[in-house]
Amino acid sequence: MMGFLEAARLFQDCWHLYRKYFGKDMGQKEWDVFVETTDELYQKYNKAEFAKDILLAVEKEVEKMQKNGKLGTPS
Questions:
Q1: Please, which residues have CB within 8 angstroms of residue 25's CB and are 6 or more apart in sequence?
Q2: Which CA distances in Å does 18 have to 1, 2, 15, 57?
């Protein structure tokens, strides 16, 4: 089980990841970097199940934006 402060750092890291890739039109190279970054964060949090769940949620949301063409700045 992840401690409170570690979970807070995970949320912050996930927010920064989401913000960085929100609305970004990514090619294969950029997508590979995104996936590599999520893997690095997963390792950073010792492969905790909670980290995996949150990172997968961020990845899924970014992937939906790519597939649905919901790119651009937030409203």
A1: 66, 71
A2: 24, 21, 5, 10
Q: Please count the residues of the chain.
A: 75
More confident site: 65 or 43: 43
Residue written as token pair 């409170």 = 4
Reported as a pLDDT band with limits 50, 70 and 90, residue 23 is confident
Look at residue 75 and tell me whether its pLDDT is greater than 50.
Answer: no
3-state secondary structure the chain: CCCHHHHHHHHHHHHHHHHHHCCCCCCHHHHHHHHHHHHHHHHHCCCCHHHHHHHHHHHHHHHHHHHHCCCCCCC
